[in-house]
Amino acid sequence: MAKILVVEDNKDILNLVKIILEVNNYEVLTAHDGYEAIKLMECMPDLVLLDIMMPGMSGWEVLDIIRSKKEWKNTPVIALTALAQEKDIKAGVKKHLDNYIIKPFEKKELLDKINRVLEEYKLNK
Questions:
Q1: DSSP secondary structure letter of residue 42
Q2: What is the mean pLDDT of the chain?
Q3: DSSP three-state, residue 106
Q4: For residue range 40-76, what is the model confidence (pLDDT) as tens digits?
Q5: Which of 15, 16, 76, 104 has the greatest CB tally within 10 Å of its CB?
Q6: How far apart are CA 82 and CA 27, in angstroms?
C-alpha cells in the first residue's frame, strides 16, 4: 500500500482528497501547511500531493526543501493547485514536479495521475 502525504491548507479539499485516496487503498498522511509537511517527510511517503498557495511556507518552498535533502529528493511530488497559468506550470517543470493537477479536479484525473507517477517511480527505482 503506497503512502501519500497530502499537503493542503483548505480543510474541505484535504478531507475530500483523503477520502478518495483511502477508498482506493492508499495510506494517507495529511498536513495543513508546509511546516507540518516537512515534519511528515520523516515518515518517507511514497508520493507527495502538494498545494502551492499556502500561508506561511508556500508549496514551492516545501518542494525546494524536499528536492534539497538527499533522502527525499527522489520522492515524487504532484502539485494540486489553482495556479493554472502556463508560467506556473513551467515553474513546476523547472522545480522537477512529477505532475500537475489543477483545481477543481476530477476524481479520475487525480487517481490516474497518482497511479501513473507511482508506476514511473517504481520503474525508475
A1: G
A2: 94
A3: coil
A4: 999 999 999 999 999 999 999 999 999 999 999 999 9
A5: 76
A6: 25
Tell me the pTM. Answer: 0.95
Phi-psi label, residue 18: left if phi above 0, alpha if psi -120 to 50, beta otherwise: alpha
Confidence of residue 116 (pLDDT cuts 50, 70, 90): very high
- CB contact at 8 A, 99 and 116: yes
Gap between the Cα atoms of 124 and 64, Å rounded? 21
Q: What nine digits make up the cell of 87?
A: 508560467
Residue 87's H or E segment, with its range, is helix 86-94
Q: 104: cis peptide before it, omega within 30°?
A: yes
Cell numbers 511517503: residue: 45
27-31 vs 47-50, strand pairing mode:
unpaired
Q: How far apart are the first and last CA of the chain?
A: 17
Q: How far is CA 37 from the centre of its chain?
A: 10
Strands (E), the chain: 3-7, 27-31, 47-50, 77-81, 99-102
Higher pLDDT, 121 or 48: 48
DSSP lists the bridge partners of residue 77 as 48
